[in-house]
Structure formats: structure tokens, C-alpha cells
Amino acid sequence: MEDSTNDLRKTLAKDSHSLTLKRAADRRSDGRFRRREIACDDADEECDAEAWETLSSGIERVQSVLDQNRALIQQVNDNHQSKIPDNLVKNVALIREINGNINKVLSIYSDLSVNFTDLVRQRKAVSKNINGNVGAKSGSDIMDAAAVQ
């Protein structure tokens, strides 16, 4: 009885996991389309495809790594529940891979932050040059200069 219950739980967990991954992929693709549409359709805002693409690609890369981690975590759980010595040994490598993926996510977010900050600063500089405010310094420019020192 216990074995059939565990088998049923595993089957349900795998089905649920597959459904969750599919829903996440659907949300990502639908969300990307909606976000681009909203960002580019607003008449008051200029559509900045480069900034949007930087954000979108970074977030997509993070989501891909997180999806991979979700699958690895599920495998670790399955191995742990099986209590088979070889599977428990495999968990060591899986957990190391999960840890490496977490470091990838941190790196992607760090790069994304730097790239997006650089894009914003470039846009501010271009905007100031276009508007003729080259000599004027705003409060944020003073703060930026203070942060560099």
C-alpha cells in the first residue's frame, strides 16, 4: 500500500512539475509580448528597444537557469526519497550543479544591473545634449558624481 502511495505521489509530482514548467513558459512568452506591447504603445514614452531587449534577455536567461534548477531540485528530491545509495551519491553532483546555477543567476543579475544602469546614463546624456542642458547639472548628476568619488 505504501509503495503504491509513493508511486502515485511521484507520478502526481512529475505531472504537476511538467504542468508548472509549461505554465511558466506560457507566462513568459505571453508576458514578453504584453510587456513589449505596453512599453512600445504608450504615446507619452519613447520606445527604447535596446533597453527593453537588455532587460528581456537577462530575465529570460535567469528564468531558464531557475527552470533548470527546479528540475534538478526535483531530481534531488526523487533521489533522496528512493534512499538508493547510488542515487544519494548522485545528489552531491546535482547539489553542486544547483549551487553553480545560483551563482550564474547572481552573475546574470549583476551584469543586467550594470548594463541597464549604463543604458540609463547614456540616455540621460543624450537627452541633455539634445535639450541643450549640457552645462546644467541635476541633483541626480551630483549624486552620481558623489558616488564615484
Automatic annotation (TrEMBL):
Q: Per the database record, which ranges form the Protein EARLY FLOWERING domain?
A: 46-125
Q: Which InterPro entries match?
A: EARLY_FLOWERING_4 (IPR040462), EARLY_FLOWERING_4_dom (IPR009741)
The record's annotation in Pfam families points to: Elf4
State whether keyword Translocase applies.
Answer: no
| Major location (coarse) | nucleus
Compartmental location = Nucleus
Family classification:
Belongs to the EARLY FLOWERING 4 family.
Can you name this protein?
Answer: Protein EARLY FLOWERING 4 domain-containing protein
